[in-house]
Design a protein that fits this description.
The chain has eight helices and seven strands; from the N terminus they run αβββαααββαβαβαα. It has helices at 20-23, 65-74, 94-110, 112-118, 142-154, 165-171, 193-196, 198-209, and strands at residues 29-30, 38-39, 47-51, 119-123, 128-129, 158-161, 180-182.
């Protein structure tokens, strides 16, 4: 399936042309911030984390130029680090500070270089918002994200549903018959043995340790 995110406008509001009609009038969306439909590279990722949507991005003028550049490059899988939110140059930014503690336990096992390359997060809704009140929205760009997750499930990659289990399995039925893990506490998206169960955590670690086919 063709990636639609190369068509994102260069200036706000940052809404894909195919999504304009669907998001018109939607409340609570922060469209002056670059969307984050996913972070990572599907060509390298062995483990997918499924979330709901990116939270508020802060004031656009306070987001570093490096963060904006990597965000935009990441839309077409061209960022310097595949999991670009953890790019060391972005230390101190909201995305870096949010993700690093949540993936720290995995990094303790396999190293940050493996986490950067082989973990991917896909958001159910790509646009920033304060809450997930927009959960009833179905927008055209989601088809690409759902396709990425479907392909991951079909190819035997490990999928961790961090949030929105019913939404994700409804959108991607292949998840019901795949190696799919649900976090015990979806409000705390920490990939740890306690939050995943030792067996599931071990599955994720082992998959990350395996060489790419």
């Amino acid at each position: 399936m063709e990636n639609p995110w190369g068509d994102l406008p260069a200036e706000p509001p940052y809404v894909l042309p195919i999504d304009h009609e669907a998001v018109a009038g939607a409340r609570d969306l922060q469209l002056d911030a670059l969307p984050v439909p996913y972070v990572g590279d599907p060509a390298q990722a062995a483990v997918y984390i499924l979330a709901l949507n990116p939270g508020l991005a802060g004031e656009p003028e306070r987001i570093s130029a490096d963060a904006r550049e990597q965000n935009r490059l990441g839309l077409t899988f061209a960022s310097t680090y595949p999991f670009w939110s953890l790019d060391p140059r972005l230390a101190g930014t909201g995305g870096y500070e949010w993700w690093r503690p949540r993936l720290q336990r995995l990094a303790d096992e396999v190293g940050w270089d493996v986490v950067h390359r082989r973990v991917m997060c896909v958001q159910y809704l790509p646009y920033h918002s304060r809450t997930f009140s927009a959960s009833r929205l179905r927008i055209p760009s989601q088809r690409y994200s759902f396709w990425l997750v479907s392909e991951a499930a079909r190819s035997g990659k490990v999928v961790v549903i961090a949030r929105g289990h019913r939404l994700w399995t409804g959108a991607v039925p292949e998840l019901l018959s795949s190696e799919c893990v649900a976090l015990r506490n979806p409000r705390a998206v920490f990939l740890t043995p306690r939050n995943m169960g030792s067996e599931a955590f071990g599955l994720v670690v082992n998959r990350l340790r395996q060489p790419r086919p």
